[in-house]
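User: hey, got a sec? need Very-short-patch-repair endonuclease folded
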Amino acid sequence: MKNKERARSLRQNATDAEKLLWRHLRNRQLSGFKFRRQMPVEPYIVDFACLEAKLIIELDGGQHAEQQTYDQNRSRVLGSRGYRVLRFWNNEMLRDMDAVLERIRMVLLDAPHPGPLPEGEGDKARGPVPEGEGENGGGGTWS
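Assistant: Yep! Here you go:
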């Protein structure tokens, strides 16, 4: 399946957390920035992207160590292309949407990053797994 078709399928099968965040991002509701959801950014499909701010938002469910390593590599590749990557746990989205939106707003209103993130940025270690999330995973927000 091509990335464009896969992105369409992912939009049609969004998680509850993705649906909730999309309600707040769509139609330039967050500080006037335009977001796209399940957007191909080769070779990946990212959950949400704001092209004008070069910001990608990824939502993570419960995951194991291998997924964490994949996500860190993915964030590093996207960062090398000039994107800032924010990662949130699904349950963060469902538990404290106001804090998540404020974090996104702060990053959007920050001066645009002139190039790839400095070494180590965009793949910081996550904190402990929130209760009821995944196996051997981490938690928190990456930026």
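Quick note: The two ends are 30 Å apart (CA to CA). Let me know if you need anything else on Very-short-patch-repair endonuclease.
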